[in-house]
Design goal:
The termini are far apart. It is globular and about 40 Å long. With 88 residues, it is an all-alpha fold. The protein is built from four helices and no strands. Bound molecules: flavin-adenine dinucleotide (FAD). The site of flavin-adenine dinucleotide (FAD) has 8 residues, from helix 2. Flavin-adenine dinucleotide (FAD) binds next to helix 2.
């Protein structure tokens, strides 16, 4: 079993709790690209969950909403990193 199989997904079993970091399950392990890419994956999972059930996010505090907005920005930045990594 590869180490990737044991790594945690960005989406956790805990509601509204997401993970980002190079140690999470993603394709650029142990690197800055991996750290950024994991942020993109986490942001995508937040956006997917929001689209599926916006009401679940209405009860979140102001900092959590700010984090969701930051997540959208990270997604945009990570797409730039992803494109430049794949062209190397
Ligand atoms: C010596 C060295 C050289 C490297 N060189 C390269 C390189 O050339 N290119 C490359 O792509 N990658 C390199 N890496 C790997 C790269 O640094 C990591 O992959 C990247 O920094 C991971 O980012 P991260 O945000 O996932 O975690 P981190 O950068 O480790 O950030 C985690 C943060 O969480 C904080 N933290 C931990 N526990 C807690 C807690 N309980 N409460 C609050 N805060 C906490 C830590 O202090 C840290 O600031 C190198 C790593 C090392 C060690």
């Amino acid at each position: 079993m590869s180490s990737c199989a044991r790594r945690p997904s960005q989406k956790t079993p805990i509601s509204n709790f997401y993970l980002a970091g190079d140690y999470t399950k993603q394709k650029y392990l142990a690197s800055m690209e991996g750290a950024v890419y994991s942020g993109k994956l986490a942001a995508e999972k937040i956006i997917d969950d929001y689209a599926a059930n916006p009401a679940a996010f209405k009860s979140l505090s102001q900092p959590a909403l700010a984090a969701a907005s930051l997540a959208a920005s990270v997604t945009a930045a990570a797409e730039i990193v992803d494109k430049s990594s794949s062209s190397l």
